[in-house]
Amino acid sequence: MKRYNVLILLLSILIVLFPFGTDLKSNPIEKGILKIHFIDVGQGDSTLITIDDKSLLIDSGGHAASEKVLSYLKKEGIKKITHVVATHPHEDHIGSMELIIDNFKIENFWAPKVTSNASYYNRMIKSLKRKNLKINVAKEGKIINLHPKVKCEILSPIKDNYDNLNNYSAVIKLSYNKFNFLFMGDAEGPVEGELTERNDLRCDILKLGHHGSNTSSSEKFLDSTLPQLAIASCGKNNNFGHPNKKVINRLENKNIKLYRTDIHGDIVFGCDGKSLMKIN
């Protein structure tokens, strides 16, 4: 009888320590793994960055991509977004932003100090007001507190006024140990010049400015960033010719590997602080 009681006790302890049905691989949160998701939103931009239980969403894609972005975030187990950045008020970057705001709990919202009369921008502002969310001004020197091990800094806009709305784009540099990632929004040549003069832009992954347009990614800028990999977020057979052939040639000449959402679909990289790996 005593032996039976001991067996029951041992079994109870094992059940507490190792509950039936537990599968560690199914845990959506992998401790210390930084994941960067370049979501295929067609001709637009949306990037999800996660580490532990923290998340950063840079742009939402256009309205046509709203179902894709919402389902992608839910598939990744996102219920709360720590930081959302609307890089600049163009439809292909913030056209789905109202739905992101309406469907997720957002802790911090960032955008440059520039407005638009467009209906998609006004809908975004109305959604922010409904959720009592204030806009943190995205500008040079601001720090996005994403995670204790990750440095996330806004490098631009630098000036208060630009001739082109693209150049108001919030440019973000993210660093995890020795690995650096640069997200350019739609920033063009003039901003690239400003950034090159003021910052160390070396990075492992460069999200090309303006979808790989020839208005961005100049020779000088690529020489200052020296990425291993470049990402062009663009739509299949888009009318703009993105990514531009001249940009593709520049990347090839510098042995920078190019990934494109129009060809590769969703592109995901993982980084544990010691190595960088392509997940899909």
TrEMBL record:
Domain Metallo-beta-lactamase: 43-236
Top-rank lineage group of the source organism: Bacteria
Coiled-coil region(s): none
Pfam families, per the entry: Lactamase_B (PF00753)
InterPro entries per UniProt: ComA-like_MBL (IPR035681), Competence_DNA_uptake (IPR052159), Metallo-B-lactamas (IPR001279)
Entry protein name: MBL fold metallo-hydrolase
Species: Clostridium mobile
Taxonomic lineage from the root: Bacteria, Bacillati, Bacillota, Clostridia, Eubacteriales
